[in-house]
Design goal:
Its cofactor is pyridoxal 5'-phosphate. Pfam families: PALP. Keywords: Pyridoxal phosphate. GO terms for molecular function: D-cysteine desulfhydrase activity. This protein has 211 residues and is of the alpha/beta class. It has 2 domains: 98 residues, Rossmann fold (3-Layer(aba) Sandwich); 76 residues, 3-Layer(aba) Sandwich (Rossmann fold). The protein is built from 8 helices and 6 strands, in the order αβαβαβαβαβαβαα. Strand 3, helix 4 and strand 4 form a beta-alpha-beta unit. Helix 3 packs across helix 4 and helix 3 crosses helix 7.
Length: 211
């Protein structure tokens, strides 16, 4: 597949890094009319909830690099972790199914809210294999055993927050720059992003510096 993502167009020598097309890009940018009026300044949102037709959000951007590495290494099974209602686990499972890969989720209990119940049903629907662990120590041990015994397995860090995953948001910064250059959106004074592991933020900071 021809690699024409913004990051590789700017730095062609990086095309040796594994990459596979997953997201619907570029994600659109919308002006928030009522919010802009209330705050008396232009507020725009980049719709990364639309990165994937089934399960969007920030994870699919990371997966374009992580799953490319999985496929390059010929792995068939993904091992990852979270709580029983893990959004990361669900996003991983949805993406894995697209590539014919299986997903093993090593999870810990959490309160059974409506959202958690919905995610559990989705885990089942998309074919995830859940392993309920008693505590973090047992989970770590069980994952290591799985990875040792199943040489076709590949460990994906929580939130896909790894150097490869972070490249997804380095590329996102270049994607935003292209939208600014095409006058789809004015150049922003500030960017606001929600964070957990900070990998999304780290990728954006690096990408904006390079762009």
């Amino acid at each position: 597949m021809v690699k024409e993502i913004p990051l590789f167009k700017k730095y062609p020598k990086l095309t040796n890094i594994p990459w596979v097309s997953i997201i619907v890009s570029p994600t659109p940018v919308h002006k928030m009319g009522q919010t802009s009026k209330t705050l008396k300044r232009d507020i725009w949102v980049k719709r990364d909830d639309l990165t994937h037709t089934i399960y969007g959000g920030n994870k699919p951007r990371k997966y374009e690099f992580v799953f490319a590495d999985i496929l390059k290494k010929g792995k068939k099974t993904i091992v990852t972790l979270g709580s029983i209602g893990t959004n990361h686990g669900l996003a991983t499972t949805v993406t894995a199914r697209d590539f014919g890969l299986s997903t093993h989720l090593f999870v810990l209990e959490q309160p059974l809210s409506e959202g958690v119940r919905e995610n559990l049903l989705c885990h089942h629907f998309f074919g995830a294999k859940l392993h309920l662990m008693r505590n973090p120590f047992h989970r770590k041990l069980a994952m290591k055993i799985k990875l040792i015994l199943d040489r076709s397995s590949y460990f994906v860090t929580l939130g896909a927050s790894s150097p490869l995953g972070t490249l997804g948001f380095v590329n996102a910064a270049f994607e935003l720059k292209e939208q600014i250059e095409k006058k789809i959106i004015p150049e922003p004074d500030k960017l606001f992003v929600t964070v957990g592991s900070l990998a999304t933020c780290a990728g954006l900071v690096l990408g904006l510096e390079l762009a």
